[in-house]
Amino acid sequence: MSKNPITTPDFFGYGDLLPEDERAELARIREYLETAAKPLADANWEKGEFPPEAVATFAKLRLADYSYPEYGDGRTRSPLFSGFLSLELNRVDPSLAVFSGVHTGLAMGSIYGGGDQEQRDRWLPAMAAMDTIGAFALTEPEGGSDVAGGMRTTARREGGEWVLNGAKRWIGNGTFADHIVVWARDVADGVVKGFVVDKGTPGFTATKIEGKIALRIVQNADITLDEVRVPEANRLQNVNGFRDTARVLARTRGGVAWQALGVAVRAYELAREYAVTREQFGKPIGGFQMIQDLLVRMLGEVTSIFGLVVRLNQLVAEDRCRADQAALAKAVATTKMRQVVAWARELFGGNGIVLDYEVAKFFADAEAIYSFEGSREMNTLIVGRAITGHSAFA
């Protein structure tokens, strides 16, 4: 046996592309997440509950500072750093990473990109500190992939107010968020607009979706809007149609590819460690050819995801990332992630289906990441249109 086996899943050293100070910061974040966030995930995943103390845990990291430096410490980090940060969050627990991503990426991102300066200054400082929590309400019970053209939630202008009616589904953080960004179609002109609805507004109800097999800590909600009145001041002033919603999604879609990498990395780490410690027939199973074959297949897929997402973030840094490139990254990375977690669960044998060995959680959570932010099929059609010039959307 080699005395110095290679333990890192970053086999080609993509992390070395980061400057030294950012690598040190990521190491600090990883250590903190392992000690402060992972125990919360381990204690609450099976119960399907969100630990309230997770808010304070994540608030200490000031994650929003990385995306919105003017509302934080003012320092800027590279787009590549933001990708590796997502990897670290998802490596610890995808559910808690989704909680953070919905708040920081989708809710704050909608206000930052769609709101005017007054609205940014009104909401974002408290959200950056996680004194208030955000949610993003786009998907509907009858409209997932086709919500752009088939949105049924409506907005009606009455004087200085807007009246919202409709329903939303799968809304992360929806049961406890303070500010919910709701997308609705204006009945007067048919244009999709964005509104910030505050928790407790009359006519707004959020009901937890039960019975999930993935991302169990995430509090997804069914939301109903029954004559919900919001002031004109809560309409996102710089949203002028669904294309502005799509811009928010385009930014986060590439982030899902990094989520997939984080899950695949953790599945590989768990499988490699199990292989070198679990003994059968008088020696570690890592000494058997078929186990090594599984591990190398997994490492190969992890490495290919690394290459894809690192290049994607380089394009982001150059302001040259296209929507079809983000769509390809999401579709390919999540497909490869799904294969990696399946091989990891296989390597564990019967132990792979119990939470004691952790891999079962990542195996289940991967299904949600594979499906959200545009299914593989929808992202495939986006790329297919780009490379053929023909739209195959129904």
From TrEMBL:
Residues 135-228 form the Acyl-CoA oxidase/dehydrogenase middle domain. Residues 240-387 form the Acyl-CoA dehydrogenase/oxidase C-terminal domain. Its EC number is 1.3.8.6. Belongs to the acyl-CoA dehydrogenase family. It comes from the Bacteria. Keywords: FAD, Flavoprotein, Oxidoreductase. Residues 20-130 form the Acyl-CoA dehydrogenase/oxidase N-terminal domain. GO terms for molecular function: flavin adenine dinucleotide binding; glutaryl-CoA dehydrogenase activity. Pfam families: Acyl-CoA_dh_1, Acyl-CoA_dh_M, Acyl-CoA_dh_N. GO terms for biological process: fatty acid beta-oxidation. Its cofactor is FAD. This is Glutaryl-CoA dehydrogenase.
